[in-house]
Amino acid sequence: MSIRLRLTLWYSIILAVTLIAFGVAIYIFVNYNTYKEMKTKIEQQVNAINITSTLDMFGNYQTPSFVIGDEELFIQVDNYKNGVVKATPNLRRIDLLLPKPSLKEINDSYEGFENVKAGPYPFLVYRHILKQNDEVFGLLQVAAYSGREEKFLTELKTTLISSVIIVVLIAFTIGLFLARKALRPIEDVILATKQIQNGSDLSMRIPREGPNDELGRLTDTLNGMLGRIETTYNGLNEAYKAQRRFVSDASHELRTPLTTIRGNIELLERMWLPSLTQGADPESDDAELKHLSDQERSRIQLTRESMLDIAGEAKRMSSLVNDLLALARADAGYEMEKSVQPLLPLVEDVARKAQLLPRKAEWKIGNLSAIENVNVLAHADFLRQLFFIFVENAFKYTPSGYVELRAIRSGDQAGIVVKDTGIGMDHDQVPHIFERFYRADESRGETSGTGLGLSIAKWIIDEHGGSVEVSTREGAGTTFIVWLPIAFHEKSNEV
After folding, report:
1. CATH class label, 215-334
2. Cβ atoms of 293 and 247 closer than 8 Å
3. Which of 494, 489, 493 has the alpha carbon at shortest distance from 377?
4. Which residues are in the Histidine kinase domain (predicted)?
5. Alpha carbon 39 to chain centroid distance?
6. What class does CATH assign to 3-156?
7. Could you read off the pLDDT of 331-381 as tens digits, one per residue?
């Protein structure tokens, strides 16, 4: 509910309560004054009646005589012991008797004024209980016709209720209009902020209208804040672009020397370390070097270990540079050139090459029949990289047990499942695993890595219009399911 509507409703409710209270006060005041004169006449008539002589006449079964000061007053006396009812002639003329309670119902609460109906006519009645020796035997009723007064009060009540409803509706309509007019600057603020949010246009400013009130000052403050945000954002954006260019350029520049280093190291390995490159026994090399001095053999052994270290570090740096280059492409909005590719050969190629990866866990290739004759719109190299990332990640975090690759299908989605029985993760870590440089086991230090692999995988999945599911439990392994939309499949394979 908008502020405008809430304010209008609150004002309308307060106004309605005020008018209702005022109307009730008017009605009570008019009601009191309307019946005041009538009650005075009735009380005077009651005082003019000799109650004692009335009792004597009832006791002797004589007809009581009443002194009536006003023809509009009606008097009725009921004797409950002998059932005699005496009434004034004007009451007899309209062929009516005032209603009376039964003897069992009479108590002290019946003493006083009450509005009753005798037939179709309303009356204001004063009832007086007749007692003899503290025993109730009769009831004296003095009444006045109150039809005109009741009609007047009914019309007054209808007028007050109608007036309250009409006034509240008018006030609600006018209040809604005024609230909308008064809160128009806030709507301008909302509209401007939405345009900034949807279009990322920080040059947008909120129109300044109206007097220099609280909303006007708020608009000026927000415009000033937007100006500072725009300046800061532009500076950060330029710095971010420069950083992306640096990462991209540095990655490109580093690839060349790293490639040269790796090539030279491989050449030296083939020249100096034939036993390691050909799979021979390292002890045979030691036998060939027996004619050398201990110092020369030590130098050659040290050279061998240094070359192995350089080769390993060069390989690791090449992997890191490739990852940084892939992320630089992602940040730069690189669009992959995709074409329709059969999915099964890609997955089988990954499964075959994954057997050569360094690992401690058993490598299992599960059922891949679900993706037979299934095509996807993809970039083949990036798709292979995607699957290798998940397989390498599974080997890295599975010191024992197995890693399995299989395929499933659901509707127009093909799923590649990579399941391991490794160390798993806590559920709180799952939302962060695709963030750059995030590592779930960082505090434990169980594995090495940069934390960029899954970020690259997520980028590749997004570029292919796919999604990924993760199910894991700490100490019980992790399962990743990469879902890719099917571009084409043989009708013979449809179910």
Report:
1. mainly alpha
2. no
3. 489
4. 249-488
5. 64
6. alpha beta
7. 666 667 788 989 999 999 989 888 888 888 899 999 999 988 889 998 888
